[in-house]
From TrEMBL:
<feature type="transmembrane region" description="Helical">
    <location>
        <begin position="301"/>
        <end position="319"/>
    </location>
</feature>
<feature type="transmembrane region" description="Helical">
    <location>
        <begin position="331"/>
        <end position="351"/>
    </location>
</feature>
<keyword id="KW-0812">Transmembrane</keyword>
<feature type="transmembrane region" description="Helical">
    <location>
        <begin position="206"/>
        <end position="224"/>
    </location>
</feature>
<dbReference type="InterPro" id="IPR050895">
    <property type="entry name" value="XK-related_scramblase"/>
</dbReference>
<feature type="transmembrane region" description="Helical">
    <location>
        <begin position="268"/>
        <end position="289"/>
    </location>
</feature>
<feature type="transmembrane region" description="Helical">
    <location>
        <begin position="360"/>
        <end position="384"/>
    </location>
</feature>
<protein>
    <recommendedName>
        <fullName>XK-related protein</fullName>
    </recommendedName>
</protein>
<feature type="transmembrane region" description="Helical">
    <location>
        <begin position="40"/>
        <end position="66"/>
    </location>
</feature>
<dbReference type="Pfam" id="PF09815">
    <property type="entry name" value="XK-related"/>
</dbReference>
<keyword id="KW-0472">Membrane</keyword>
<comment type="similarity">
    <text>Belongs to the XK family.</text>
</comment>
<dbReference type="GO" id="GO:0005886">
    <property type="term" value="C:plasma membrane"/>
</dbReference>
<keyword id="KW-1133">Transmembrane helix</keyword>
<feature type="transmembrane region" description="Helical">
    <location>
        <begin position="72"/>
        <end position="98"/>
    </location>
</feature>
<feature type="transmembrane region" description="Helical">
    <location>
        <begin position="119"/>
        <end position="136"/>
    </location>
</feature>
<dbReference type="InterPro" id="IPR018629">
    <property type="entry name" value="XK-rel"/>
</dbReference>
Amino acid sequence: MAHEIPRSKVKLSKAGFFQKLQCKTRDNKMRNPDIQFTRLRWLLTFAGLFLYVADIYTDISLALMYFQEKQWVWTGLTILFVLAGLLVTQIFSCAWYWDDIKEDLLKPQEQISGISKGGLTLLHVLGVGIFIRYYHLLNKGSKVVWTTKKSHTLEESRDVHVHTHPSLFSLATDLSMLKLFEVFLESVPQLLLQLYIVQGRDEDSVMQYVSMAFSLSNTAWALVDYRRCLRRSLPHIKEMPPGIPTAVYLLYKLCTITSHILSYSLLLILNIYSIIALIILCLLGMIWTQLLQTNFCSSKYLELLYRAVTGVILTFTFFNVKGQDTKVPMIIYYSCHTFINNMALLLLAFLKPELQTDRFLLTVCGLIIVGSVLGLVSLVWYYVFLHPREKCSEADEVDGLGRETKATRRIRNFLQP
């Protein structure tokens, strides 16, 4: 679990802070030479872009199919989730660009092909802000990972290692945070909607299954990518080892989320008014986030939007909202999670016994049981045996927790796994 790290009372001058921060970063990277933006990381970023585009494309294609069939409700809801994810990511992306420009952390005229501040805003209004971020990261990263290292002098190589690689991971972390918003506002609700439609219709189509497959793949990618980027961007957090820890974490998240979505779909099939209970769960998540008084955004209104989005995310999975010890909240959350899953199965057995002969629904019930058990086992396995332990119990200005930039603060104060 993540713990909130107290700020030190030591005050440093701005010049002294950045000088010590540079030394701290250099020391961290020298001790951890593998923490760098590699060619594999660049290719994986491109893969994430592909999944993002494919997910939206299949959803829009599905909406067109419903429109041709004159299924107005399904058309509207499918498009609504696409627009919700798109709108929220554009709002936060634009706000973060403005924050970085204000603090001279980002100079658009130098780093993003001459795009001005007004041009960035216009591109976000047009809905392509996240593609600008992908272009920025891939373009800057390609100059580092696809150039011949022999052409660099010793000083240039040191500068790339100390400054450029951390900068690339900072860009990647911003992008991964936006992707996390997008999957829980678009991909996950879309998966729930399409499951409900497939289970409630006599006919289904290949496009529905393709859309669900890309939604699930996009979600899986976003969860693992965010966790790895976060742990590489914050110097006081240990790196997440690849291999078994990453696989177990992914298994934990995917199984718990998928089983929960399937349970929600069963409840909606049993009674469409179960949507009211789903809305109440979402509101409870928003209220809890409000009570925690998060401080993620620089604007009061953006903070309210962030808390609302967090409430939606908590409807499907658990995250550490404010960097505190979350052992008790996590136990309570997954106890309720298990109760809802079991309740969906029991209600199906007692209220709709005629549906128990449906092969598809029987498969769904089996997936709920297997997913719930496997997800909880993976959760315990990960946090007991595989979770990287933070050795740093306190931080000073060098760690960026005293006089910190808005970019550093948003990474540190965002949802923590």
